[in-house]
Design a protein that fits this description.
mainly alpha; globular; transmembrane; transmembrane helix; membrane
Length: 277
Amino acid sequence: MIERPLPATRWIALAIVPFLVVAVVVLFAAPERTGELFAWPIAPPLSAFVLASAYLGGIAYFLAVWRTPSWHRVRHGLPAVAVFATALLVTTLLHLDRFSANLPFAVWLVLYATTPVAMVWLLVVQRGHGPGARRGAVPEGDVAIPAAVRVALAAIGLAALAAGAAALVVPAWLAELWAWQLTPLTARATGAVLTLTGVVNLAMLGDRRWSAFRILYGAQLLSLAAIVVSLVVRRDDLLWDRPLTVPFLALVAAALLAYGAVTVWCELRLRRARATA
């Protein structure tokens, strides 16, 4: 596997960023006008905020793909983006009648019809341009994530992936239990967001290098922080009589603390490793 991202990888990543920026601005600044300015009308605004939070992490990730000199530092994000985009494409095709007949929807459809193919293609062409550092090896100046931490985070990822898959298959089930009002469309979109964490965390079972997840965890922390702010700002959208409201809030808080703690711990060890390398 080549160590440096190919020009195609970098340029595709950079091309995606402006669309994510526009989506974040619209979803955060004008959630009540999503039917006009976005691909479909989203209610309540908290659903728009959560989707925007995922896109915010995506901006950080794709900018990192553009800048990084090391392919392994961003490689595990592409499968997650492919699954996320495929889930939203399936969601779109199942709910075409709910989307707006406007330019944002046309852009949305083109993006989600092409992104899964583009991500898989990039993974293939990167693998086909020669070997890089052996996956899972921890070179000098890097640190290993302990097996117990990786297994615990992978278990969280598996749970998130399972919940996302359930939301895609039986959205009415999630809508009845969720912390705020969902339609079948927004339930499936929320499920797509959950798959991002799931795919990234499961990759930790096969790669113990902190450098391979450092960028991804930074993006996830940004998304989680945005979700926390969204929950505070849109707290009136929460339905406290729903079974999953308190568990969801607790899970978000726990994830923010856990990812933050792992990041700080690994960064401190990385600093010491580089100092002695």
